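Researcher: Let's try something more involved. This one mixes different molecule types, so please make sure each is placed in the same coordinate frame as the others.
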Amino acid sequence: MATTVHEPPKIDPNRSPDRQSPDLGQSGNGGWRNLVPTDGDSHLVRDYSPPPSSTAIWVVLFAITMMFAAFTSALFVRKGSSLDWRHFTLPSILYFNTAVLFASSITLELSRRRVAASAGGLKAQAGGPAGWVFATLSLGLLFVAGQYVAWLQLRAEGLYLATNPSSSFFYVLTATHALHVLGGLGGLMYVIDKLRKSLLRRSTMDAAARYWHFMDVLWLYLLFLLWMKL
Amino acid sequence: MHDMSAHPAAHHAPPTSFIRKHIFSLDHKVIGKQYYALALVAVLTGMVLSWFMRIHLAWTSAAIPGLQLLSKNGAPGGVITPEYYLQLMTMHATIMVFFVLTTAPFAAFGNYFLPIQVGAEDMPFPHFNMMSFWVTFTAFVVLISSFFVADGPTLGGWTQYAPLSAVGSVAGPGQGTGVVLWATSIALFCVGQLLGSLNFIPTTLDLRAKGMSLMRLPLSAWAWFITSCMGLTAFAVLMPACILLILDHVAGTSFFIPSNLVISDQLQPHSGGSTLLWQHLFWFFGHPEVYIAIVPALGIVSHILITSMRRPILSHRVVIYSMGAIAVLSYMVYGHHMFVSGMNPVSSLAFSFPTLVITIPNTIVVLIWIGSLYGSKLRITTASLFALGFISMFVSGGISGFFLAQPSIDIMLHATYFVVGHFHMVMGVAAMFGIFAGTYFWFPKMTGRMMNETLGKIHFWLSFVGTYCIFMPFHYLGIAANVRRYSAFVDDYLKPLIPVHQFITVAALVTGAAQLIFVYNLIHSRFWGKPAPDNPWEGTSLEWSTPTTPPPHNNFGDKLPVVYHDPYQYGVKSSTGDYVMQASPEKVVTLSEEK
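Model: All components are placed in one shared frame. Result:
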């Protein structure tokens, strides 16, 4: 009976531990994985995977993208199929709100860079980044308040949710976006909490920043869409 | 954003309070079992609803004792009205598609076994995981609550086609509050499944044990991963669709309601909406949903078959690539549900072609199974029987798909029982067989006790024969132009078909009753079954390497496993017999054929 004997697998004892950040060290925690092929060729394959929060935030952003893609396609189909579409001018406060949201992204980015700069944890560094997160939080709240003012302005013009498909889409899109911004504000409060306890991971901060910047980009897209179609 | 940075390795100690242990548990294993329990309640509910419908179809004037208690107007004296028939049908389909076929193979088994199969201690975001279940549970409660509102649940079918789903109670009983509850339930369900995907994807990508490369993942883990990617895309589209539908109801908008619509002699106040828009949004979710139900079963069945036939599958990689191809193609074929919607015939052609193409990866998977089975010494267990039964159902149901994929034939058959037979076999029963196979296979690991194999085999044969008796005649009825969604067959051309319906009803009652054997086996074995060894089926993947059965709170005890091998090292020479486990550093000695 012919048999093929494979070498037992080996784990390279010389793998460089210095490349393992404390965040990524353990296996089963998105660390470096040493793949040991069974076919006798025991070369070491480095397979890096990011911490789960990093992957998760892309999952979240993808889901949000799909959701707004669905709304967008609904808007195009609805507009294309109807004769009752009424155009209206966007409330001017939206442009101010855009600037506010944009500014909040800058403040959060400043904070994120400080967190990133204070390598290996955040001991005693909490003061610097937290201030900027608070600034972001305030600007985010200001943005949502500004959106509310925009709705009030539309109401004053007699444009309600059910008045016309164009106003329906305006309210649905801006409200859905505002809800996601509020979710982001909740996330920022979580970041502040962790920052105060010096427990914030860099990956959490990165994820929060990515989400927040995405809200920015999403808003620019929505503004462009509404400006073009309404 | 809550708990975004939850640490998977040491994020939560074993729970001590009853509530944390069994109700609001953060443990993926408990959450998996909760999903399974929810699916079990849902499937029994859905099955009883189907009994009511079947009895009414076969003996239209027969009174079903007690049904009038559920709905005085819908079933006066226990005799189902046509409207109530449609309400039962809608609830049967919604419960089965969402709360059984999505919940059991994906959320239940996936939650329990994906982290273990990848070698992780838990999912990365246990709070989101807990929310995922409780949101899904709330969705189920909301759906069931519509039975108890004034005019009962919606009668619009699980597809809820606009505009009748959007105009309110003028369209029939249940079309007001019933639809709002339905859409709320489904939107909640979407949130639950999105939270599930949020955990499944990072678990697979980031939490694999040392040595567990993607290609070393068992096929079941791959299937759950691919399904979670599909769910992410599909449920994120269904949710906005449900939001727009709810707004049409409660806020007076006109997303789906066209101008000049007259229903029951009443001109509707809405204008300009697009009815096809709902169909596009719904089926963009709806077709991938079919694969969300079936791909986990493909993975589970592959996993069980390989373990039972004691040799590797012909090509592990090709099965993975095929499942991936199915996932991608599933988004391009959704229009085949809309051949009769008045869509441009060119679009029909464009949707027909990928529909035929998607049969190729499905066929490849089936051929790989059959090729691998050929000449193997299959261990006949209840799990492997159900896996074989799955192949049988999947092929039988899939073949009728070839007919329906062609618009010219589909237009004839679309509104008939042919389609009902097709999707019940390929999606419903096939996925159910996958769930049964998974249950018999993994029950020992989940509970620490063995299920009764004799009862299991009786359950299999009754289910297998019974299912064919129910759903094969559906195809015949369809070709005989028996229209679906009718609550009674009073036309002359349909009357001769009623005996066939009576046969189907008897088969459905018997097959349904046979499921009680399963429920008995499940409950009895849970408490009084034979204690299970750690690795009863001599499997190789990581779920069989846990230090205890059922696995401890952190799955692997003090030491995370290190993976040395591809998932299916069967038919080899080793100290344990004919297999080497993934976590065993033992060298693999392959037996080549003796010639």
